[in-house]
Write a structure and sequence with these properties.
The complex is a heterotrimer of chains A (about 350), B (about 550) and C (about 300). Chain A is an all-alpha fold and about 350 residues long. Chain A has 14 helices and no strands. Chain A starts with a helix and ends in a 6-residue tail after the last helix. Chain C contains twelve helices and no strands. The chains are: A mainly alpha (about 350), B alpha+beta (about 550), C mainly alpha (about 300).
Chain lengths: ~350, ~550, ~300
């Protein structure tokens, strides 16, 4: 039963991705930008322009370009079907390799941020829910409304000014480790994991130190919607019949709270998943402020340089991961909430 | 301020510092790491890529050093060449043939020895025009090397190297020109004709890619330069290690890490914490702020960088010389030097870098004079700007968006001044790529501020052919569509003029013409600057503005 | 920047009625101030916000000097208005720019929102009322649109189409329309089985009249409430686009652009060019969030 469900979701997801790829492919080509120009460089002759156009494959009919990109024309070289995202026009390296280098940073940033944000927000949200309308609840309510509507890049800059420039507590906003540190051997691509695997505890400490400010900025922004959501779900759970019954039955307070929490978490999980998928692309600005070199910065670079294969690759990967996360969360949701059936 | 930075060092540097930065290592921060090391590849026009190329490759000849300026920067002596991979050379005027005696015992990173075959390979590869941007071919063409004509681009054209570059023996090659051309030696100093190591390159060739473009675009380089590529992660860092067998002696700095730090303010911060020893590409404001910082030196040279206002002859109202003159007189040059360059610039009085051989300062100048500008505008038929609303699109002042921090104060000062004359001027920041396309290929930018045209061939004639000769007569980057048959005629004479003083007179006459016609409105020449740890010595300026790490050492 | 569509509306129902009206009035105060500035900001600004007429990078006067400066201004002793917020690296008066910015920011946000609201309600009504292959297709398309990473997509659209106000409005509208389609459609789905629809049908009203006259007005609320929140996020998105260089063109007075210009100076200790516009965005978006939340609670409760 569940296998069939997963398979169906995969099928739908693949179709959705395919549509998206084709849509993005045409969309960026419809827009009035001329990517050939940057390769002409010092030599502006018409011959050189034509040569550059040929090298990029832009002289071919658009359907042939699409066919090549999708991998339907194996004679022209590998495409999506063969697992290739194409070659970056700016660097000449495979887009897949470049994304594989940038993606782990974004995932680490998001994972740390969500972990910390949940650790902070769940207790706060619960506390607020215990006495709805109390002073603590009001304060939490205003805070969550405020934090949820802030320009994160500005807060990032403020944090840099205060914690790096003025107080000197944080390292300079330049990526996940000092430029002079030799990175641990790449195994997974995740620097934290790799440094643990290599036993490089000094590097691990340094990386975590560098993640401190970006994670703090992100936690501040994320805590708004998460607290609000936990609080609402908790209030609802506490007011529900089964908690009332548990109370009447004289169960210990802690036990009742655990029941309520479990009931409150199920809907929360889905929303956190959506938020995670959203932030894959939404971390762009924070990555930019702290020069983290993640997927978002890669996206900025690609967009501003009109690097079409890279743009297509970024959108494809972000969407694919979001879809996978949604699927995983639906499965978790089902595990937590016995009412859900497939 | 100082104590804060010390604190930051204690907090952040403490951890990172352990074990790093021996006296022989250098951390160099730039806006990017090389996106490619292949000068015929897609990344060749990017300055940071050129920095990679010039450090791992080697030219046949280069300019000799002139001396050191008062900021400690060594400058070149244009017009005096010294042998690098070529030990000596001679020219036979009758046959237009240059004979190069190559240096013996030169060993590259891969262990191969430099011979005539490497020279032949380099020109053969250039003539194959197989890369994304055939710069090797282009420079050979500019230097009038026989056979390097636009014909090679034709479908099925012969792209193989003929007798124009010939091997006499293992250490002697001849290169033949199609006509006398004073630009021959200057183009050989440019990165786009640096030598490859044939053996090392061919080891990386594949059937689909016989000229190893993929290898040099993405992986490394086979040449005879002072440094070898140790590790290269695009968008992150490139690590170069000294070529201990380098023929001019093993480099003093053994390891160079060139690290990408996109925001210039971040480069400032790391330099201040002492983690980096050299940074480039800061804004003038940032260089200025570092001048008083402890342990940091700022050095600069009045090289070949400048800023001008570009007005397109094909777009009204700029086809009217009075309008161009009015604009030239309205530019608040002093204000720009003080507010945007913090004094590190001087008024530009011509159309060619004043440091170049053949530069001439015309009589006619356009100093800041708002009243005069208003009068000229009225004379042009637009008193107080009346009637210019019809050209609102043309009056959008374009500039490269990525340079907002540096150019922002300048374009705003100019726009404010012109709006003071009643001209409806708006700003139009566009991405570098788009700017390049519209300037170079489409040539349809009506009105722009440009600070990135440094003619890489060090010669007033090269600059003229590049920027001012009409496109029909072979002008390559005539972004304003200036068409003056008299000017083209003078250049046709000067190009093949063998007598240097006659040539200089022709070039001077041409430069007077440019100023008379306000082809560009020259604004300032600004210093090329670096900020570095004050123990770092030996910085030398080259016309491509790329640092050679070989020149550097720590005190 | 959190997703505007994340509001768990079901949960909001249980929000107890509290005396937080002061908060509501703060929201109203902020939003009306911003609206007032959008209308009159450039008029009451002491200087033209796009003319570089001042020495660059001058810090704001210290708060202790403010009363004196005010008094001097009122009595006419000081002829030129002081640079209350200092000046930026271009020599612009920051105070004039901060108060002129709502005209740009709010206009973009309102226009994008109006466009997507109109389109979203129309399509949502059709998709909810007429359920057939076409409308199912519409929903799938809107699914695909909604799965685009919002910020990156907006960046692509604006960077490749050209940095103009119109392109920003279109990009934002395109990205926000699916939210309104979804909200309206689900409301229509619950309304169309209500008794009054049956009644209208029994009276012989044609379907189109029922849809437009009866179902539509009753299905507007969720979309309208959402729009207050969306306006706030549109302001954030506009500022974010400017920050990475894919937004409005300089020297337009726009908060994100001002922060971006000032970002490089923070490291030199010059905080004022980015801090004042930052406070302005922070408060404005907060104001819209408060208002949206208050409206939501009134509707639910």
């Amino acid at each position: 039963m569940i296998t069939r469900y997963i398979l169906r979701r995969f099928a739908i997801g693949t179709v959705q991705l395919l549509l998206l790829v084709v849509a993005v492919f045409f969309l960026i080509r419809l827009l009035p930008a001329d990517p050939v120009s940057r390769f002409v460089g010092l030599n502006s002759s018409a011959e050189a322009y034509a040569q550059a156009e040929r090298n990029l494959g832009l002289d071919r009919p658009i359907m042939v370009q699409l066919g090549h990109y999708l991998g339907l024309l194996p004679s022209e070289g590998p495409g999506l079907l063969q697992g290739s995202l194409g070659t970056s026009w700016v660097t000449g390296s495979p887009v897949a390799t470049e994304i594989a280098g940038a993606l782990p940073v974004t995932i680490e940033l998001l994972t740390f941020s969500f972990m910390v944000a949940l650790l902070v927000s769940v207790p706060v949200g619960m506390l607020a829910a215990l006495r709805p309308g109390g002073a603590a609840d009001k304060g939490v309510f205003v805070y969550s409304l405020f934090a949820g509507s802030q320009p994160e890049f500005w807060w990032g800059l403020l944090f840099v000014y205060v914690f790096f420039f003025t107080l000197g507590w944080a390292p300079a906003p330049l990526g996940v480790m000092s430029p002079l540190t030799s990175a641990p051997e790449t195994v997974t691509g995740f620097v934290t994991v790799d440094s643990i695997l290599a036993g490089r505890w000094d590097v691990l400490g340094e990386v975590l130190h560098h993640y401190m400010l970006p994670v703090a900025t992100m936690v501040f922004i994320l805590s708004g919607p998460i607290i609000k959501m936990v609080r609402q779900n908790m209030v609802r759970a506490l007011a529900s019949d089964f908690v009332l019954y548990a109370r009447c039955a004289g169960l210990p307070k802690g036990r009742v709270a655990m029941y309520a929490l479990r009931a409150a978490m199920a809907p929360s999980v889905t929303l956190i998943g959506i938020l995670y998928g959203f932030m894959l692309g939404g971390a762009v600005l924070i990555e930019s402020v702290f020069s983290l070199g993640g997927l978002g910065q890669y996206a900025i670079r690609s967009v501003l340089a009109f690097d079409y294969p890279a743009i297509q690759g970024v959108i494809l990967i972000i969407t694919a991961i979001s879809l996978l996360v949604y699927l995983a969360l639906d499965l978790i949701h089902a595990a937590i909430d016995p009412r859900v059936a497939y | 301020m100082r104590s804060r930075v010390t604190l930051a060092l204690a907090a952040s540097g403490g951890l990172a510092f352990a074990g790093a930065a021996a006296a022989q290592d250098l951390l160099f921060l730039a806006s990017d790491v090389p996106a490619g090391l292949n000068y015929d590849g897609p990344a060749a026009a990017i300055p940071t890529s050129q920095t990679g190329m010039v450090n791992v490759m080697e030219p046949l000849i280069d300019y000799a050093a002139a001396g050191t300026n008062d900021e400690g920067i060594t400058t070149p002596e244009f017009g005096q060449f010294e042998g690098r991979l070529a030990e000596s050379w001679s020219f036979d005027e009758a046959s237009l043939t240059w004979t190069f005696n190559l240096r013996q015992g030169v060993t590259g990173c891969g262990g191969a020895e430099f011979t005539a075959d490497d020279v032949l390979y380099t020109f053969e590869r250039a003539k194959s025009v197989s890369g994304a941007a055939p710069i090797g071919w282009f420079l050979s063409n500019v230097g009038s090397i026989a056979g390097f004509t636009p014909d090679v681009f034709g479908e099925g054209a012969d792209k193989s190297l003929g007798a124009e570059v010939a091997k006499i023996d293992d250490y002697t090659v001849t290169i033949t020109q199609s006509e006398p051309n004073a630009l021959f030696l200057p183009v050989l100093t440019i990165f786009g004709l640096y030598m490859f190591d044939k053996e090392g390159m061919e080891a990386q060739a594949t059937e689909a890619d016989p000229w190893s473009h993929d290898f040099t675009n993405n992986v490394g380089m086979a040449s005879f330069g002072p440094y070898c590529v140790e590790r290269w992660t695009k968008d992150d860092e490139i690590v170069l290690t000294a070529n201990e067998n380098y023929y001019r002696g093993a480099p003093a700095i053994k390891t160079v890490v060139m690290k990408r730090v996109p925001q210039s303010s971040n480069r400032v911060v790391i330099l201040r914490t002492g983690q980096a020893q050299l940074v480039q590409g800061l804004t003038p404001r940032e260089y200025d702020s570092l001048r008083d910082a402890a342990g940091i030196a700022v050095g600069g040279v009045a090289g070949n960088e400048n800023l001008f206002v570009h007005m397109n002859f094909d777009t009204p109202p700029f086809d009217n010389p009075l309008v161009r003159q009015a604009i030239a007189h309205a530019i608040p040059t002093e204000q720009i030097i003080q507010n945007a360059y913090f004094g590190q610039a001087t008024v530009w009085n011509g159309h060619v870098p004043s440091s170049y051989p053949g530069y001439h300062q015309p009589e006619r100048q356009y100093p800041y004079d708002p009243e005069g500008a208003a009068a000229l505008l009225a004379e042009a038929g637009y008193p107080g700007g009346a009637g210019l609303d019809a050209y609102a699109d043309a009056l959008q002042l374009s500039y490269v968006a990525e340079k907002e921090t540096t150019l922002g104060p300048i374009v705003n000062a100019i726009a404010t001044a012109l709006r003071g004359l009643g001209m409806p001027v708006d700003l139009n920041p566009i991405p570098q790529t788009q700017y390049g396309d519209r300037q170079l290929v489409k040539r349809d930018l009506p009105f722009a501020v440009n600070d990135q045209e440094k003619p890489i061939g060090v010669d007033a004639g090269y600059a003229s052919q590049l920027f001012f000769v009409s496109p029909e007569s072979g002008g390559l980057n005539n972004m304003v569509n200036y068409r003056n048959p008299a000017f083209d005629g003078l250049w046709a004479e000067a190009r093949v003029e063998a007598d240097a003083s006659v040539r200089d007179n022709l070039l001077a006459e041409m430069q007077d013409m440019l100023m008379e016609d306000v082809v560009w409105a020259p604004v300032v020449e600004y210093k090329t600057q670096w900020a570095f740890a004050d123990g770092l010595k030996g910085l030398r300026w080259y016309p491509d503005n790329s640092v050679r790490f070989f020149d550097l050492s720590f005190e | 920047m959190a997703d505007a569509s994340l509001d768990d509306r079901a949960g909001a129902a249980s929000t107890p009625r509290r005396r937080v009206d002061w908060l509501f009035w703060i929201g109203v105060g902020i939003v009306s101030t911003v609206t007032f500035l959008a209308a009159f900001g450039p008029v009451i600004a002491p200087y033209d916000p796009t003319l570089a007429m001042h020495p660059p990078s001058v810090p704001p006067p210290s708060p202790a000097d403010w009363p004196g400066l005010w008094w001097g201004r009122l009595t006419g002793e000081i002829e030129a208005a002081p640079n209350w917020f200092g000046t930026d690296a271009n020599g612009f008066d920051l105070f004039s720019r901060v108060i002129s910015a709502p005209r740009v920011d709010l206009t973009i946000a309102l226009a994008a929102n109006a466009l997507s609201l109109g389109l979203g309600i129309f399509l949502g009504l059709i998709a909810g009322y007429y359920r057939n292959v076409l409308t199912e297709g519409l929903m799938r398309v809107s699914d695909v649109l909604q799965s685009f990473p919002v910020f990156i997509s907006a960046m692509i659209l604006v960077a490749l189409a050209g940095r103009s106000t119109l392109n920003i409005v279109i990009a934002l509208a395109l990205l926000y329309t699916p939210i309104y389609i979804r909200l309206t459609r689900s409301e229509v789905l619950t309304q169309r089985v209500r008794g009054y629809v049956e009644a209208a049908r029994a009276l012989g009203n044609p379907e189109i009249v029922i849809a437009l006259r009866h179902v539509l007005p009753n299905s507007l609320a969720p979309a309208l409430i959402q729009s207050s929140v969306t306006i706030g996020f549109a302001i954030l998105l506009t500022a974010g686009l400017s920050f990475v260089g894919a937004g409005v063109r300089p020297p337009a007075p726009e908060w994100g652009l001002m922060i971006s210009t000032g970002a490089n100076q923070i490291i030199l200790g010059e905080w004022w060019p980015s801090v004042f516009p930052g406070i302005a965005i922070s408060l404005t978006v907060f104001g819209f969030a408060i208002l949206g939340n208050a409206l939501e609670r009134r509707y639910e409760g």
